[in-house]
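Blinded run. Sample ID left blank on purpose so nobody reads anything into the name before looking at the predicted structure. Input follows.
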Amino acid sequence: MAALRPCRHNNGTGLGEERARRAGVPDAGGRCRSTVPPLPPVTPEPRAPAERSLSSYRRVTTALPNALPNEPRGAPANSSARGAGPRAGRPMRAERAWRHRRRRAGGREGTPGARSRRGGRGRRRRRPMGTLSVLSAANGEARGAGGAANGDRGALGPGGVAIADAMSAPARLVGEVGRAVLADVDTLLFDCDGVLWRGEAAVSGAAAALGRLAAAGKRLYYVTNNSGRTRAAYTEKLRRLGFPPAEPRHIFSSAFCAARYLREALPPGAAAYVLGSPALAAELEAVGIPHLGPGPAALPGPAPADWVQAPLDPAVRAVLVGFDEHFSYAKLCQALRYLMRGGPDCLLVGTNRDHRLPLEGGAAIPGTGCLVKAVETAAQREAFIVGKPNRFMFDCVASEFDVDPNRTIMVGDRLDTDILMGNDCHLTTLLTLTGVTTLDEVRGHQDSDCPARHRLVPDYYVDSIADLLQVLGE
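Blinded prediction complete.
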């Protein structure tokens, strides 16, 4: 039997390799390589783009791992499998563009002068292939297959106007395109590290660009996976680097979102065992959650028998893992003991899965994802992740402010966190190249025949946030 192509997502089905083989996942040419009778098809449950109440996350980690809301194992919620109905099978990005055209009414064959989401008038202009290839041959075949599944119409807006599909190349946000996009949004969500600053130095022109956006009436919020700073520390850093004034409630760090999640999920009086920084502990204190664990820890004795005899706090009902410079085997042992004692009633929560943190000069250090993985491996269970790309972080913003996904841009430098969350939450996504991502990486995901990788492709990109100054007329 021929082997499946090396794609861990297996065409977005989320099945294991053996089960995908039995299910008859097609190869790049649309032919099925399996000779085993197929299993019943897996029908994904579509995810609504509407605002979600934070109370819906209560006790979610007591469910089976396949039911966890972070990184679902089934077909991607915004993949081409959209469920039943007249718009079934329409790619996620095409669906967003369709909603935009319904709101803006038409284009060249609809209301005269109505501008499209990508800034052109009416039918989308053909883009030159100099910066990014529009479609590879494999993607053309896949798009043709998708068009056949939709009655050979492809993705059409009102009056038959062609709109972008899920594999369109991202456009550079400049000129008329940029002005049209910014005119159609009222909210921007910014990642911080690699977007607004690198280390302790602001990206050149970033502060001025955000100042112009604020002066234009745009609402600016900050969403970061960094759990090493409190919201107050972030507002102070924004002020020190010359960015527009921000209040702590405008900052949504993974530390704050983790504390907010535990406030909703834990019963009154329950405590958390924390593998994390003083900033993470401070955010827990701010919402009234007792905690223990931050700081160095030593093994209680020389032998393993001593390690499992250390006293456990009876109030602990959750283990929270963030960035912890004092992470140690002693802490790992204690976390495992709390999770084994409490079973499903003891929550396992992580702030993010960032495995590597880049530093200036090409250096890097291990990220929080390495620590989360260590605890997950020891406990043999999966953590609930509050940070990007999980939509819980966006739901925290939406629960605090009146945020319309159709009028919101997610700005980030990482495809697997910032852009993925933005696409999954039906936001417009803007990649900045001042961080860890290159255009070659975008090309690789765009030209892949794996639908899950298409979720990592942004709608637009800029070399730097400072490019928005030109778009805004300066």
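Unblinding after everyone has recorded impressions. The radius of gyration is 23 Å.
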